[in-house]
């Protein structure tokens, strides 16, 4: 139902995630970022609690891979889940359950992970990875800033959308981005936290909102 990117810019100390779906308010259910811990995503037949469990595991010293590997101990139906985690020590991991609605899959690179289900095909994830690796952004927004990192995430999300995205269509999208910090805060302080919960062109709407935020800085 969803395609998602979690990513880090280790050079500039930036962390973020972006997601889109033919479901209402995807940003409320799928992604979570803790600036002192990392970024996570939980989707498919979504178990929202897995986001908290993965972040807490990493805060206690688990790697991203270890957090993902604990899924069967946290969830009675791991075959229905699709998750990803990124820690601040260089680890990134993802898993796609065998009962996740097709087409479903994931891909992990050195600084990001992409994952999706009910997509038109792998080309969606490939397009997202290529766009993120290319460092595409939005004219007029400093690419080294938190807003610039959010723009890069949205460029990847837009590339996935243009490649076909969710096979059912469009409805909602969300993006979060922030500077990495040393101390945890509750709730976490995020530089960018934008959602388009019900829109005909949700990714384009997020681009508009990000431009608006940049203008008001």
UniProtKB/TrEMBL annotation:
<dbReference type="InterPro" id="IPR029055">
    <property type="entry name" value="Ntn_hydrolases_N"/>
</dbReference>
<dbReference type="InterPro" id="IPR010430">
    <property type="entry name" value="DUF1028"/>
</dbReference>
<protein>
    <submittedName>
        <fullName>DUF1028 domain-containing protein</fullName>
    </submittedName>
</protein>
<dbReference type="Pfam" id="PF06267">
    <property type="entry name" value="DUF1028"/>
</dbReference>
């Amino acid at each position: 139902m969803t395609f998602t990117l979690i990513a880090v810019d280790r050079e500039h100390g930036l962390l973020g995630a972006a997601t889109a779906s033919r479901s209402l308010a995807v940003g409320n259910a799928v992604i979570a970022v803790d600036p002192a811990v990392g970024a996570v995503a939980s989707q498919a037949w979504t178990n929202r609690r897995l986001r908290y469990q993965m972040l807490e595991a990493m805060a206690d010293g688990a790697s991203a891979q270890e957090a993902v590997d604990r899924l069967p101990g946290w969830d009675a139906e791991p075959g229905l889940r699709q998750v990803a985690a990124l820690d601040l020590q260089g680890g990134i991991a993802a898993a796609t359950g065998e009962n996740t609605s097709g087409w479903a899959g994931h891909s992990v690179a050195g600084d990001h992970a992409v994952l999706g289900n009910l997509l038109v095909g792998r080309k969606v994830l490939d397009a997202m990875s290529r766009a993120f690796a290319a460092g595409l952004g939005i004219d007029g927004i400093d690419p080294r800033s938190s807003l610039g990192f959010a723009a890069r995430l949205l460029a990847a999300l837009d590339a996935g959308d243009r490649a076909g995205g969710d096979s059912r269509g469009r409805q909602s999208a969300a993006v979060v981005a922030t500077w990495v910090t040393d101390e945890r805060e509750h709730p976490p302080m995020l530089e960018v936290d934008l959602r388009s919960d019900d829109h005909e062109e949700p990714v384009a709407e997020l681009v508009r909102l990000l431009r608006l935020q940049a203008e008001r800085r």
